Amino acid sequence: ETGVTQSPTHLIKTRGQQVTLRCSSQSGHNTVSWYQQALGQGPQFIFQYYREEENGRGNFPPRFSGLQFPNYSSELNVNALELDDSALYLCASSSHREGYNEQFFGPGTRLTVL
Amino acid sequence: GENVEQHPSTLSVQEGDSAVIKCTYSDSASNYFPWYKQELGKRPQLIIDIRSNVGEKKDQRIAVTLNKTAKHFSLHITETQPEDSAVYFCAASPDRGSTLGRLYFGRGTQLTVWP
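The joint structure predicted for all components is written out below.
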C-alpha cells in the first residue's frame, strides 16, 4: 500500500451541490495530481498542484478547482455538480523532479451525484 | 494532447499461459510509460514502468517493451496466475518540461486468468 490517503471514501450528493475531496500525499512527495475515473474507463487527468499552485490542467471546466497546502496535502472542489460528475476521484502523489515522475495513487473517493 | 490507445479491452487466459497487452501513444514528447494494475474497488497500483532510453525492462514474471519509433509499448505477463486477474492500464507521460507528471491513460484491459 502507498502512503497516500483520501477522504471521504464515499459521498452522495445531488445535482447543483458542491463537494470537497481531500488527499494527503506520501511522505517526501511535493506534488499532487487529481484524476477522474468514470466506470469502465481509465483515469483522466484533472489538474496537478506543485508548490501550492496549479501546475497544469486537463480538459475540465473551471467548476473543478483545487488547493494545495504547505504540508503538500490537497483538496479538490467541484461546484454545481452534474450527473456526469459521478465517478471515482483519485489523487496521486509524486516528486516534482525531472526524470522521476512515478505516481502513487490513493484509494479514491467514490462520488455519486443524484 | 496525448492520446493512448490500449488493446485488447478484455483478455482471458488459462493459468500458466502468457498474456500480452499493447498500447500506442501519439505524443513524441512522452518518455515515461508506467503500467498500473487495478483490482475491483481498489486503487491503481504501479507494477512496472519504462523510460524512453530503455527498450525493455523485466521484473520477475512481468516485462515491458517499448518501441519509441513506432510509438508503441507492451506489457507481457508470463506464467499467469488467478491473482493476476484485474484491470491493467497503460499510461504515457513526459518526465520533464511543463507537462511533467501528467499521466495519460489507456482505457484498460480486463485480464481474467482461469484456473
